[in-house]
Amino acid sequence: MNKNNKKINKPKFNSYWIYGLVSLFFISTYFIGGDSSVSASKNINITSFEKFLNKNQIKEVTVINKSIAQVTLNRDALNSPEHKNANSTNFLGQKNLNGPHYIFEIGNLELFQNKLEQAEKKGNQFNYNFKTVENKWFDVLIGFLPLIILVGLWIFFMKRMSGGAGGGGGSQIFNIGKSKAKLFDEKTDVKTTFKDVAGLEGAKEEVQEIVDFLKNPTKYTKLGGKIPKGALLVGLPGTGKTLLAKAVAGEAKVPFFSLSGSDFVEMFVGVGASRVRDLFKQAKEKSPAIIFIDEIDAIGRARGKSNMTGGNDERENTLNQLLTEMDGFGTNTNVIVIAATNRADVLDKALMRAGRFDRQIYVDLPDVRERKQIFGVHLKPIKTIKNLDTEFLAKQTPGFSGADIANVCNEAALIAARKLKKAVNKQDFLDAVDRIVGGLEKKNKIITPEEKKTIAFHEAGHATVSWMLEHAAPLVKVTIVPRGQSLGAAWYLPEERQIVKPEQILDEMCAALGGRAAEKVIFNNISTGALSDLEKVTKQARSMVTVYGLNDKIGNLTYYDSSGENEYGFTKPYSDVTAQIIDQEISNIIETQYQRAIKLLKKHKNKLVELADFLLDKEVIFKEDLIRIYGERPFDIKKVVKKTNSK
Fold first, then answer.
1. Distances 144 to 134, 137, 139, 141, 153 between C-alpha atoms, Å
2. Which of 102, 321, 394, 527 could staple 371 via S-S, CB 3.0–4.6 A?
3. pLDDT tens, 65-119?
């Protein structure tokens, strides 16, 4: 203790001093292990040496290892003032007559030897010889060099894995088992709140309630209720699961630990379980607290599956420790775990049960009303035209997640900037949707006139059939400009249905086959351009037969397993006879809709040709062009009449 009664902190041992000392040792042994007189001589250059040689001041020259020359002066030279700075005295101040007094690098050995011989011919009296010096200490150390390098690399990587800085000390090697969770508390500036989360009203309500549990626990416990131990956010990628967690961190006035499921995974055995223990220990010390684990499927997959080699034992140990911490002896109920995944079907049943994740919150794709709200959030930083119709944009993006809408807004701003516009307008957003869904326009792609004509009739066939069918999605636009991998495309605005009837599926299949049917009607030939259409209708037909029970011959049966557990192993859950019936029924459904599309196009062949020619000329046509050629859709007119009569 000093006078101010302050504790004097001892300087921490810095391991980088070891590296410095080893390097210094290598350098010193190079000189110490060799001729010690080398380091005691004064350095000169070869020009100075030649001057001394011409003055006949040199007594002896010794060439060491064919690279360094040691020069010893004669008695007359040592008495000269010219060499008063030479190494002519020893440490006692006595004259050093034996030398060497100077040292220099000779460069080319052959040229140096010629100079010495020429000096001898001129009558200079001196001796010269060659000497080889072996550094035994240095040679021994060179033998141990690989081992020294391996030890140094081991120390370096262990310090990196432990997260320690240079000077953290050897004990930091054992920090590898510490949790990597990032702590957000009242001191952390987290700006995301529930106001920044558009849509997801049901999910927000449940998550807000969890925050309220921790803020006012007595409100719920006074009636005998227990605070939930965990909530699992389940949804497709981009729907806002992590954003909800960020909002919880911004709203909650309790410590919030955030990490990913992969943060538990490590190459060393037992590290994952150790990190789980450390995480819950920290959370309990700061309780009430919230732990958020993103992508929990990285450690929460069902145990015992696909574990033929035993390579997943470490992950299973980590999961076992997580199960124990969430609901085991001595579990602290003041810690709530929130997890997010888009693969809830692969999670272990023990993890999903009540008492661990008491609530499963489904974060679905936003509907048209929620998409409008999401557009409102992402349009705030973007300079748009006045009175931009966000409801129209919401209708143009069915099936888009929140992340997709954010991407649309950003892409629209980039497109407007590329066109040197002062504000982003509706067309920029439509172009952004086309860019994201269809890919980049390829106007330079080389297409022959015959191919272009085939593509035009193919897309016109889609447009015509969809226009004539009641349950087919209404057309928005048709283009024959190549985008991405497609040579042409027809854009529709599908209705957002919660349940689908057989006639609706069949109309959609017929519209999808309209392109190939148009090729057959016009050219009496078909092409490979219908690949994506055939893939789509085959999946729809197979779902009707094997999943939804919409086929008369198969009946009200489904071979779909929602649990993801195939109890039949690698075999089919039906007999070979049933498999033949399924294949035949799928083929019959598709062929029936194909013939239906051909019949429709033959009936309207003249208008089909007119539409295709117009498409060849303009390359892009819109809904208004179809109304001009075909008139209003008959089914739309009926709907308007029904609404009028009801009023």
1. 18, 11, 9, 5, 15
2. 394
3. 778 888 888 888 888 878 777 765 554 455 566 778 888 888 888 888 888 888 8
Rounded-to-10 torsion of CA 112, 117, 123, 125? 70
Beta strands in 424-480 (DSSP E): 475-479
CA atoms within 13 A on the CB side of 543: 12
Residue 331 confidence (pLDDT): 54
> Closest Cα partner for 280 from 262, 268, 300, 264?
264
The pLDDT score that the predictor gives to residue 139 is 62
Give me the architecture of the 35-133 domain, per CATH: 2-Layer Sandwich (3.30)
Sheet harboring 230-235: ordered strands across? 182-184, 256-260, 289-294, 335-341, 230-235, 359-363
Exactly one of 459, 508, 519, 585 is catalytic; which is it?
459
pLDDT at position 587 is 94
pLDDT one-digit tens code per residue, 413-433? 999 999 898 999 888 988 888
DSSP conformational letter for 367:
-
CA 505 to chain centre: 37
Task: Round to whole Å and give the CA distance between 535 and 547.
Answer: 17
Distance CA(112)–CA(24), nearest Å, equals: 33
The dihedral over CA atoms of 87, 92, 97, 99, expressed in degrees to the nearest 10, equals -40
The DSSP H or E segment spanning 622 is strand 620-622
> What mean pLDDT is reported for the chain?
78
Identity of the residue numbered 402: G
Determine how β-strand 68-73 pairs with β-strand 58-64: antiparallel
Query: The tokens 């049966």 sit on which residue?
Result: 557
- pLDDT at residue 13, as a whole number: 47
Q: Which long-range contacts (CB under 8 A, 24 or more apart) does 575-580 make?
A: 578/554
E-assigned strand segments in 132-238: 182-184, 230-235
Strand order in the sheet with 58-64: 42-43, 102-105, 68-73, 58-64, 127-131
Q: How many Cβ atoms sit within 10 Å of the Cβ of residue 596?
A: 19
Instruction: List the chain domain ranges.
Output: 35-133, 182-363, 370-438, 449-646
Structure-block tokens of residue 315: 């992950």
b/e for 215-224, b at 16 or more Cβ within 10 A?
Answer: eebeeeeeee
Q: Where do the H-state alpha helices sit in 472-559?
A: 502-512, 514-523, 531-546
* Catalytic residue list contains 503: no
Task: Give 231 or 442, the one with higher predicted confidence.
Answer: 231
Alpha-carbon separation of residue 461 from 457, 468, 487, 490 (angstroms): 6, 11, 15, 10
336 pairs with which residues across the strands?
Answer: 290
pLDDT, one tens digit per residue, over 27-52 is 555 544 445 444 456 788 888 888 88
118-175 pLDDT, tens digit per residue, is 888 887 778 888 887 666 566 666 667 777 788 877 777 666 655 443 444 444 445 5
Q: How many CB atoms lie within 10 A of CB 316?
A: 19
Q: Which range scores top for mean pLDDT: 390-394, 436-440, 563-567?
A: 390-394
Looking up tokens 């607290």, which residue turns up?
A: 289
Burial class (CB in 10 A: 0-12, 13-18, 19+), 52: buried
Can you read off the two tokens belonging to residue 299?
């450690």
* Domain 182-363, classified CATH 3.40.50.300, yes or no: yes
Give the angle 471-473-478 at the CA atoms, nearest 5°.
140
**Alpha-helix runs per DSSP H in 222-270:** 241-251
Query: Looking at domain 449-646, what is its CATH homologous superfamily?
Result: Peptidase M41 (1.20.58.760)
Spell out the CATH class of 370-438. mainly alpha
